[in-house]
Amino acid sequence: MSIKEWPATEQPREKLINQGAEALSDAELLAIFLRTGVKGCSAVDLGRDMVRHFGDIRGVMQADIGEFCAMPGLGETKYAQLQAALEMGRRYLAVEIQRGDVLDSPEATRKYLRLKLGHLPHEVFACLFLDNQHQIIRFEEIFRGTIDGANVYPRDIVKRSLELDAKAVIFAHNHPSGIAEPSQADRALTERLQRALGLVEIRVLDHFIVGDGQPASFAELGLL
After folding, report:
1. Which residue among 38, 56, 74 closes a domain?
2. Cα separation of 73 and 203, whole Å?
3. DSSP letter string, 132-170
4. What pLDDT does 148 receive?
5. Entry pTM
């Protein structure tokens, strides 16, 4: 039976319109994105197959083009559409947190950082440079690779902060392992950066660790 033959209350598109996107399962959301299934397999069935194959919705989003296109019913067009949807989400959240005080929208900041860093297979250390109203001046990746404290140079971050006339910063880096807990190296690096930036009166407001689930906040953990 095709989705069009389902009761209206069970059809993903109508369910989204009537109940909101949060009421849909991962497979139903993917079904709306896919629009059509393949012979003998509805769009929802195909969505379930994708979640099962890639492990979860995050795995679907992180799949490379070769693995994605290898599944029946998918292809380069769907891959491009999915990547475009992800980038729209990133840009929407970037605008959301740029329009006001970052400290007034911690959830938007978390979502933005998860979209920027959560899908990456390698470790990235990044910085949100802020003005004196805590509005974002710029988001920049500072370093790619294992963050062991020796590869992120305080002088470079101090220099960049002064170039951008930043008054405060928020650091963020991801743990590809999925464990969003600050390590001893993370703590030591944050302390070094905080001391260096303090010499030029630039505040470190937070440091987020992005893994699975909610990004961990140094400020909320009492580590700043």
Report:
1. 74
2. 51
3. TTS-EEEEEEEEES---SSSS-HHHHHHHHHHTT-SEEE
4. 55
5. 0.69
